[in-house]
Amino acid sequence: MPSSAIVLGAGMVGVSAALHLRRRGYDVVLVDRQAPGEGASFGNGGLIQREAVHPHPFPRTMSELLRIAKNRSIDAVYHPLALPGFVSPLLRYWWHSEPARYLHAAQAHARLIATCLDEHLALARGTDAMPLLRPIGWMRLYGDPQRLDAAVAQAEAARSEYGVNFVALDGRGLAAAEPHLIVERAGAIHWTDPFSVSDPHALTLSYARQFTATGGSIARGDAATLQRTASAWRVQTADGPVDAAEVVIALGAAAGEVTRRFGYVPPLFGKRGYHMHYGLRGNAMLNRPVLDTDSGFLLAPMRAGIRLTTGAEFARIDAPPTPVQLARAEPVARTLLPLADRVDAEPWMGVRPCMPDMLPVIGRLPGQPGAWCAFGHAHQGFTLGPTTGRLLAEMMTGAAPFIDPAPYRAERF
Ligand SMILES: Cc1cc2nc3c(=O)[nH]c(=O)nc-3n(C[C@H](O)[C@H](O)[C@H](O)COP(=O)(O)OP(=O)(O)OC[C@H]3O[C@@H](n4cnc5c(N)ncnc54)[C@H](O)[C@@H]3O)c2cc1C
What we know:
By secondary structure, the chain is α/β, with parallel strands linked by helices.
């Protein structure tokens, strides 16, 4: 069975991989236990982050570690009883965040990030996805002038090294750009390249529609049923067993549950996050997403309302939701913007699939011919889905990969 593949997981990464394979003539069945785009890809901040050349490091200063250890911050919290399960990946995360190793990771991350806008456009152009990609960038707000100056210096360095673009705004410039912000801030960095997606779920669904419109199939099924037969990979679906010569594991934070059955145990861990939508009072508007650096949450104008997304929660990925960060962020957000009532009945929760070296796993599943990995994109999986889909499809078809895939290979762990 040449050129046939099962793609497990219909998030932004799996849908993009399936579409790229389909465009190269593969027979593809995309399998998920839910409808497409209902995992982490559903409720994220919607940023296609061309500026995110630096992945999120583990904090290295004692003051930062103590602040997080108190478990009272908005940007990072943890379930104390879950900590034993995080010791190994977090120690490795800390190790990889040492400055010299971090630089290595950032360079490999930046190579993936560099083409993220073009890769989304390559899937979206000429389709109903285009209006969702708003070329308005996003802003990071700073309350402290010294932190703002330091951030501007870092942004200058990123501009000269990685070609990302920004405008530095003082308090007055920020107030002019976002006149409905209530409190004053020292200023902001406006990253001007990124797209802000007005409905992340709709974007994944649009790519999934292209996939089916060009002959791809979508089926409901549990990836845990994946097995190797004499000549193929097989998964059970609601429509019966599906066989294919190759399989792609794109299961986000759940990928390790499947790979470990085939001998590969990645140090994958989850950072959970929440969102809630709000109305705005009177004629207030927010022109683009803003991230309040001092408190660590994002406010993004979306179709459904102003979406507040929270930072990292370290908890078992299957533990019941505990949206304390949302409860802490909401009063601060109300001092920033004239938010009206909550729109959703309950907060949404999703899990960022993270690797300790801050790089995704893209490439062969070790020791399993015909099996491939595409997971671990952490804070930027929505950004990097199409980039990963292209890179993986090039590797699978034997074409020259458009960037060197070596830093993302599974064997590094
Ligand atoms: C609050 C928050 C804000 C974020 N903001 C941004 C942002 O602004 N920009 C950005 O780029 N990224 C952002 N991210 C990260 C981004 O959402 C993720 O990196 C990305 O969605 C991961 O995509 P994925 O396809 O790998 O995983 P998912 O979207 O989680 O897809 C995995 C799929 O696998 C399926 N699955 C799992 N187990 C099984 C099984 N056993 N059988 C069948 N199917 C299964 C799930 O149903 C799911 O559909 C954010 C994340 C969070 C939580």
